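Subgroup meeting minutes
Present: P.N., E.W., G.H.
Scribe: E.W.

1. P.N. recapped why we're keeping a running log of single-chain structure predictions: easier to compare across weeks, and new members can see raw inputs and outputs side by side.
2. G.H. added today's entry (639 aa).
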Amino acid sequence: MKRLLIANRGEIACRIIRSARMLGLETVAVYSEADRHSLHVQQADQALCIGPAAAAESYLDQQAVLEAARRSGADAIHPGYGFLAENAAFAQACADAGLIFVGPAPDVIVRMGEKHAARQVAEEAGVPVLPGTVEASDDPQWLRQQALALGFPLMLKPVAGGGGKGMRKVTREAELDEALAAAMREGQAAFGDGRLLLERYLQQPRHVEVQVLADTHGHAVHLFERDCSLQRRHQKIIEESPAPGLDADTRATLGEAALKLVRATGYTGAGTVEFLLDDSGGYFMEMNTRLQVEHPVTEAVTGVDLVAWQLKIAAGEPLTLQQDDLRLQGHAIELRLCAEDPARGFLPQTGRLEQLQFPAWPGLRVDSGFRAGDEISPHYDSLLAKLIVHADDRRSALGLAERALRQMHIHGVVNNRTALLQLLRQPVMQQGQVHVQWLDQHPQVVQAEPLDTARALAVLAVWQALENGATPLSINGPARYRFRWRVGDAVHVLCLAWSADSGWTATLGENDPLRVRVLEHADGLMLEIDGQARHWRVDVLDEGWQISSEDHSLRVEPARTQGAAAAGGAKVLHAPMPGQVLECRVAVGDTVEAGQTLLVLEAMKMEHQLQASDAGKVKTCAVTAGDRVQEGQLLLELE
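Output recorded in log:
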C-alpha cells in the first residue's frame, strides 16, 4: 500500500489523512462540487472532483470513486464511515479493480452489515438477541403481520446502514403503517435499501458498544467498551469510555461476546459490536463493519491508533496487540458539535461559519473538517466537529468537557453548543445514569432557552444602535429607538432610549426598564446591565442574529420574516431549511388540527415532519412532492 484514496469527506477524511501520513502513505481526496474548498481537499496530497453536490451523484457514485482511484494511481481505498463504508458491492468492486478495500471482506459486510443476518450469526454464536423477525422485508403487508405477532412497543430498523437513520419506535397499531412507510423510505434514501427488521423495544436500556480489531492471520482483540446512551432520535450526542458504572464481569462478558462474533465471521479490520443493556442483561443489537464516529474515545483510553491499525491490517500486517496487555487509562468523553437547533427539535441548520475556534489544551483533541468561513451545506450531515477530552477520572473529564465548550468560539450557524453544556450539567449525566430514551423523554432540557430574553434583546438593541453610529458624543439630546423582533413563536417589541442623565435604558413590553452601560465596544462588546458586567457577541445570520454570552445563546429574527400572524388571522408555514418535499399530506380546503403533520421534508440526510402549530383550514399549498425548497420559502398557508 503506497497511495490511499479516501472515499469520504469532512472530519473523518481529515482524520484518516493524519494517520496515513504517519505511516508514510500518499493521500488522495475526492470531493463534490459543494466541497471544492473543503479542508480535507486542501490537506490531501491530491484531490479529484467526482460529481455534483448531491451525495447520490458524487460520494455514493461507486464508478466515480473507482475512476478517481484509477486516475490518481491509488492502490487502496478507505471508505471512512457512512456513504460506502458498509457497502458490500463497493468492497467487491474495489477487489475486482485490484484495489485494497480498508475494511472486512464483502461477504462479511453482508453477514454483519445487514441486521437480520447479523442476528442469525449472533444466535448461532450463543450471543443473546432481542425477540424480532428473522428475515427482513420491504413488503408492508408482511411487516404489518409480523409486527402484530411480535406485539408493541417495537422498533423498526432499516436492514442496511447505521447512525439511527430510518429507525422508528411504534407503540400502537395506529402508528404502524405511517412508521413503516417512513422507515422504508428513509432507509432507501440513506442506504439504497428499504428493507426493514422488526425488534422488541426495550424500555430505558443503555447503549454500550465494544470496539474490536482483527487481522488476516486469525488474531483478534477487543478494546473495551463505549457508552453511547445519550441520544436524540437514535443519533448519538455524547459518548464516553469506559462506560460509567460497568462492573468488571459485565465488561469481560461483553468483550468476549464481541470476539465470538469476530471469530464466527472471520472478521478483519476495525469494527464495533453494539449491545443494549438493562437489568435483565445485555442483548446484541448490531455490528458496524467500519470505523465509528466515536472511535477517538477508545483511542484516548487505550493509546491505540485505530485508523493506523486499519491500514496496517488491510496491508496484511499481523496485529501485535495482545488482549492481556491492553489497559484502560483514565476516562474520555466525546461531544458532537452539530449545526442544528435543539430548541426546534434538533433541526439541521445551514449557513456560513463566521467563527470556529477551539482552545488548545492538554487532554483536549478536536476532530473537524471545517474552518471559519466555510459554508455548511444542506446536502450532508450536520456534524461540525468532535471535542474529545481525556482525564484521569470521569469527574475530571466532565469538568474539562464543560470548560472546553465554554471557551470555544462558534458563530454564524445555529448549533448545539449550549445544549451540550446543559446536558453535561444534568444530574443523570453527572451520575452516569443516562438511558437511550432519556433525552427524548426530557426534551425541555435543551429546548428551554436559558438566556434571559429581555437582556439578550437589550444587547441586540444597543449593538444595533452602536453599529449605526450612536454614541454619547454623537447623540444631541434624548434619543429613542423601537425594535420589533421574533424569538421562537413570540413577537417582542423593545424600546431603547438614551439620555445624558440615565444613559441607555431598554424596555421590553411592560417589563421594568434595564439600565445598560457600554464598557467596551472596539475589540468586543462588554455591557453592564443593571450592575452586572458581561461579555456579549452578536452575529449576523442569513435571517436575523445570534446573541451569545459565555455559555448561552439566543436566535432573534425580524418579526416580518416569519409571518405566523399574517392579515386575517392566517398562519403560514415556511421551510425551516433547504431540502426536498417528500410528502404533502394536505390539500387546499382541508381542515387540520394542531400538531397534525402537514409536510415531510428531507434535508441533511434526515426526514423532518412539519406540523401545524394551530388548528385551521388549508388556504394555500405552494409546493408538491418532489419540489426542492430554500430556507424561508413559503410552503403552506392556513386560515
